[in-house]
Every structure is written in C-alpha cells, then in structure tokens.
Protein: Response regulator receiver protein
Organism: Rhizobium freirei PRF 81
Amino acid sequence: MSFLGVSGMQYSGASLAGSRILLVEDSNLFTSMIRARMKELLDIDVEICRNFDELQLAYDKSSEPIKLAISNMNLPGAEKGEALTYLLDLSIPTIAFTGTFLEGTRDELIAKDVVDYILKDNVFAVDMLAESICRFLTNHRHHVLIVDDSATARALLSSRLKRYNFRVSVAESGSKALELLRANPDIGLMITDYNMPDMDGFDLTRRIRATTGSHELRIIGVSSSNNRLLSARFLKAGGNDFILRPFIDEEFYCRVNQNLDTLLQIRLARRVTETA
C-alpha cells in the first residue's frame, strides 16, 4: 500500500486494513466522505457511530480492540463533549474532528491528551484526517531517542511522543545517549537538550556526526535559553532542527514529523540510486 499525504508524508508498506477504527460523527455528509476516503486511500473500513448510545454499544458489543477513534465534540445526547471524554477515559487514542477553533477549545483538547485535532473548516479536512490516521497507525515504525538530564523534561517529551504512537527511548546524559545509539541502530530521530552536565548538546551532536550522517539519524535540539544564537550554533554542529522551550504541542509534532518525513525520503532516494 502507498499513501501520499497533503503535507508531503509518504507511506509505502503493509496494508492498514484490519485496524478497527471508530468514527463518532452524526453528519451524513462527513460520515460518507470519511468512509469513502479512508477506504480509497488507506483501505480501511471505518465503523460509524452516529450518537453516544451507538458509541457505547460499539464498545460493549465487541472484544476486538479499538485502534483509534475519530470523534465529533458535539453529538446528539452528548452535546458537551461526553463522547470524547468517554473514549479518552477508556484510554482509546482519539482524534477530535471539530468545526470550531477557539483558544479555549484547543486548550481543552490538548489537556485531554487527544492524538490530534482536525478542523472541518476547509476542503482538505478529510484528507488531513486521513494523514493523521496514517501517521498514528505507522508511527510505531519510528524509534525516537530523548536526551535530557531533567527527569521531568524526559517524562514530558516521552509522554507526548508515546501519545502519537512512537517507540521511545530516553537517556539522562550524552554518554548514555551514545550507548543507546550504538545498541539501537534503528533510532531515526534524537531530540536532545542543550545544557547537560557531562557533555552539552553541541558536543553530543558533533560526536554523533563524526560517524553518522543525517541520512541515518535526524537530530533536533531543544533549549530553554533565550539566546537566539543557540539555533545557529546547533545547526553548524550538525543538527537538523532546533526548538526553543516552551513550545506548543502542534509545533513540536510538526517538527518531529517533518524530520522523519525527510529521513524517509532520503532513504528512499538512496535505495532508488543504489538499484539504478
């Protein structure tokens, strides 16, 4: 199966058919569009629940695990977001599909730890939803390493990445990061803090780049410093991207996706060149 998303995401691999996906939506227009598009693009047959009662019945009637849910925030019998809360309370990964984008609504969704939220306000909404679904179902193939001497920072980033279905390893120091990279050649992305006691993010990046190129490992630096030149220094040390804390969830996920998409495109291009 192959898939090209609206943001440039590419997927080529095993079919995603067979994943149990719930669509909790009362609009006939959107249910028809989403069902047809998911089948066409991802070969997925979505299971539709048009109200809160149908959602509860769908959960109770089958022991097959729900891989992912897409939920409208306002349903008949659940006008205050009860369906979304119900899904998240069951620890079912959920994408919110909403027609409104108010700051309060966005903050509420992020606080609930939704996988993503998609706005119904443009013609690409269904295609954006398809890409978000494809990313979630395939993110497990990506192994990400977090390097930070702060246990709180490691836990926060790890939680965010696991919410998106990535495989995650953590290191509390640069020396531990080098050890994990040697033991796990499948790690494709490293997110490293700048200020660490044994070696800073610059030194760690330089050591990695002595043997490992960007076609094998992407590196994103993070820092809470207000020194805007850190990004330039980090990029010159061999980093691929840099984010200043505090950053918002959407920016963080976008940067992660862009770097992993680039890595896959580079690897694909190299394979094509090698077989030519």
